[in-house]
Amino acid sequence: MRYIFLLIGFKFFWGSCDEAADAGKMKQVNDGNLQWDERGYLFFCLCMGRFGNQADHFLGSLAFAKDINRTLVIPSWRTYKNIRFTEWFKLKPIQEYHRAVLAEDFMEYLAPQHWPPGNRTGFCFSYTQYPCEMKKGNPFGPYWSELGVDFDNTVNYNVGYSDIARWKKEFPPEKYPVLALKGAPAAFPVQEENRDLQRYLQWSDTIKGEAEKYINQNFPNQTFVGIHLRNGLDWENACKHVDGSTNFMSSPQCLGFNGKEHVTSKLCLPPKEEILRLTQKVVLQTGAKVVYVATDKYSMVKELEDNLQPQKVKVYHQDPWLPQIDLYVLGQADHFIGNCVSSFTSFVTRERNVHGKPTSFWGFS
Ligand SMILES: Nc1nc2c(ncn2[C@@H]2O[C@H](COP(=O)(O)OP(=O)(O)OP(=O)(O)O)[C@@H](O)[C@H]2O)c(=O)[nH]1
Ligand SMILES: *[C@@H]1O[C@H](CO)[C@@H](O)[C@H](O)[C@H]1NC(C)=O
Ligand SMILES: *[C@@H]1O[C@H](CO)[C@@H](O)[C@H](O)[C@H]1NC(C)=O
Ligand SMILES: *[C@@H]1O[C@H](CO)[C@@H](O)[C@H](O)[C@H]1NC(C)=O
Could you report the per-residue pLDDT of 203-223, keeping only the tens digit for each? Predict the structure, then answer.
């Protein structure tokens, strides 16, 4: 009975203020609409890396929440502060996949009664009895503090995230209503079988609106090639030692998940000639007159435009205030060329796969 009521509660709410919720302005529910779920909750911090890494972890954790049959407390994204999930993505598609509630709403409407201060247990993955310090370091401390969480005691676990039976047995919801984990219960990079969960990450109207506005003001209705140039100093350093390894960061997205092919420095940090060559090849194939460049550092606009003069191509680069706007535009391109090692690229690749759009990678054929 209780669960039926819960479903009706959500449904009613979706109908009534979905658009406002998408804009991230309105609360997910009004008090009283959100019912406690006796099947328990999964709560954690997306505390590793920047957005690309966090998105990988988010998808694996979403699958895990469903597997252990607990409601997902959707973590805030982490920049230098917590970002409510709905600022960037819609809530409803996630809930179509699995029961979920925003972390901010969980804290406001459910925690005071059902997970009160004084009764909050944190869980750390550990093989030994290493102290479980939930809030030690950045972003762990700020993440929980911004949500108003302090921990009263801790538990160490060494159960793998694929061992669902053991999770259910060792951590039943009757005994542990809220599993608050220090890190995300997921692999990096996201496992092959979870890549398709990307379909439930649908851009908020705010991100969509801003990115579409840029497209419409600059190259409306035109065929365009989107490219991702990951070439900042941190990346140059990361790529120095890749030669010979079979698995490096997000490289399985092009090399495959069984780790047979080798990562090369050309794949990780493609030389300029490779960028000019492949972009021109794709421009000729698609007949595009527009190339859109997203980068963390150097956009190569002049070099690209000079090289594409015979094709009369115009090159755009906006350096948006939010990286998510670049991600959106790259997702819309008629063809995308990305960096196979980058999880930022991987986000775009997965989204494009969901919609059957083609992707190529620098230094890879
Ligand atoms: N706007 C914009 N920012 C980018 C671009 N490429 C990288 N960045 C920034 O750099 C960050 C890179 O970190 P991740 O998103 O985790 O992706 P990654 O390429 O796997 O990099 P590492 O995590 O550093 O290994 C992104 O989140 C952005 O903040 C880009 O094309 N455009
Ligand atoms: C989830 O838990 C509920 C309550 O224990 C149970 O009835 C239901 O079958 C479970 N669902 C799955 C998919 O395990
Ligand atoms: C407090 O925690 C214990 C064990 O973790 C749990 O059994 C109990 O239901 C919790 N009480 C409340 C009010 O959350
Ligand atoms: C782009 O195409 C749409 C529909 O095909 C049309 O409504 C719109 O006016 C076009 N925009 C421009 C700027 O040409």
Answer: 999 999 999 999 999 999 999
